[in-house]
Amino acid sequence: xxxxxxxxxxxxxxxxxxxxxxxxxxxxxxxxxxxxxxxxxxxxxxxxxxxxxxxxxxxxxxxxxxxxxxxxxxxxxxxxxxxxxxxxxxxxxxxxxxxx
Length: 100
Description:
Strands 1-7-6-3 form a four-stranded antiparallel β-sheet, with no helix packed on it. Strand 4 (62-65) and strand 5 form a beta hairpin. It is of the alpha+beta class. The protein is 14% helix and 31% strand.
C-alpha cells in the first residue's frame, strides 16, 4: 500500500543519513500465524458483520453463522485474514490467525 511504501522510503532515507525523521511514529511490524481455515459450506452461511482483512477479533466473538444455525466463534483473540465476502459454497471463506 501507499502507507507501507512511504514508511519504507522514509526509514531507508533516515538510515542512510539523508533525512532526520522520527521512525518511531510507524507501528512495528507484527507476525500473524494462521490458525484456522473455514470454507463456506452452504449458500446460507453468513458473516456476522463486514469483516476487514487484519481486523482484530476478541475471543468469544461470533464471526459467522452456518446455514444450520451453528455459530463460528473465535476461540481465542484472533485476526481476520482474507475474508471472502462473495465466496460460493465449497470455496475458502476466511482464515483466523493469531498475532505473535
